[in-house]
Automatic annotation (TrEMBL):
Residues 1-19 form the signal peptide. It comes from the Bacteria. It comes from Thalassolituus maritimus. This is Type IV pili methyl-accepting chemotaxis transducer N-term. Keywords: Signal.
Length: 256
């Protein structure tokens, strides 16, 4: 058992050669996640036809994201000026369009689809800049992420992509997602499910297993809601469960 635990620790945790650099890279990923959640919260407002409480929640989260972004650009702007300028430019565009959409929702309960599409396009551009910045930080410092970190991020990204497609459908007057591509939401769900099952088969700590079981339980609700297009749309519960899963994905690492 001791040997197994030693192997798991060596597999998941590699002592960073440059802890501060990895911390900077982590802040990039955290900002990326926050930006994705901000769009989801906006879609939730649109789905609930401008619920004032949800509007305030979007605005509060935007302030948090703006603060994260400012700290990141202050820390990394000198070393990565072109990349951080791109992030700021796309954030300004996204922010302006978000204001426009919220104003339209407050006035008429539903925004112009074209403006929503432009806002999502600006968000995607910012996320791409953040991903490139992350890659550049790791490459220039010859660093790699631990396997556990990669797993956590993959699971978070899969979860947020599934929820985005679901909440888009809830926010659309035609009941169809705004994202049009060749990716089947069922395939994304299968990938998330495999990620949880794989981790459950590899860890032995009881608390880690308990967290994974809770993730799986909440995930089953999201998966059912996301893949059954005939089911009643329940964005509030899907958003709440997604938030719980994001926290528990972090908790798993603390108990391995």
């Amino acid at each position: 058992m001791l040997l197994l635990r030693t192997l798991l620790l060596s597999l998941f945790f590699s002592l960073p050669a440059h802890a501060s650099t990895l911390a900077e890279e982590l802040s990039v990923f955290k900002l990326s996640t926050s930006v994705k959640i901000l769009l989801l919260k906006y879609y939730h407002v649109q789905a609930d036809e401008g619920n004032p409480q949800l509007v305030e929640e979007v605005l509060r989260h935007r302030e948090e994201v703006s603060h994260q972004k400012s700290l990141l650009l202050e820390d990394l702007g000198a070393n990565f000026p072109a990349r951080t300028q791109g992030i700021q430019t796309h954030w300004d565009e996204f922010n302006s369009l978000l204001d426009e959409n919220i104003a339209e929702i407050r006035e008429s309960n539903y925004p112009e689809l074209q403006v929503v599409t432009l806002m999502r396009k600006a968000q995607r551009a910012m996320l791409q800049e953040l991903e490139l910045l992350s890659d550049q930080i790791l490459a220039e410092n010859e660093l790699t992420l631990s396997e556990l970190t990669v797993w956590q991020r993959q699971q978070k990204n899969l979860l947020l992509e599934v929820v985005e497609r679901y909440i888009e459908r809830a926010a659309s007057s035609m009941g169809a997602p705004l994202t049009i591509d060749n990716v089947d939401i069922r395939v994304l769900c299968q990938q998330f499910e495999r990620g949880i099952a794989d981790m459950k088969s590899r860890v032995t700590a009881s608390e880690a297993q308990r967290q994974l079981s809770k993730i799986h339980s909440q995930w089953l609700f999201i998966e059912t809601a996301a893949t059954d297009t005939n089911a009643r749309l329940v964005p509030f519960l899907v958003m709440r469960y997604a938030d719980g899963i994001l926290g528990r994905l972090d908790e798993v690492a603390h108990h391995i």
